[in-house]
Design a protein that fits this description.
2 domains, alpha+beta, about 15% strand, Ubiquitin-like (UB roll)
Length: about 150
Amino acid sequence: MVDIRFDVNGAQVSVSAYPLARLLDVLREDLRLTGVKEGCGEGECGACSVLLNGELVNSCLVPVLQASGSEIITIEGLADKDELHPVQKAFLENGGAQCGICTPGMVMAATYLLSNNPDPSEEQIREGLAGNLCRCTGYMRIVDAVSKVREA
């Protein structure tokens, strides 16, 4: 076990973990940030997506030691105190969430997309969300939610 320090949602944290422990497990189990979901555990579904130094990553594929000294934003870090992030609001208002397993990853992917392209086309939205799988919504409401943020 080694001590690893990083910034999570604006707070400096230190954890004692095995260097190759998955960032996903450290976030969920050690830091109790359960908004980060495990879907497939293989980097295929996007449910565990977080922002690592501003880049969208699947936390199930990142060894925690690799995150040492990094800035991590999870779904819990998007809201500003009691005020939801615009992407979170849009998902809520447009029915972009159903069972909730993919939702945090979808919201993180949409946030990443919009931070890099504030006015994406529908095709660009679909491409930006392509690394995230949903079995409930059929994607149309998710795309609609992202489009609403773009229009705001």
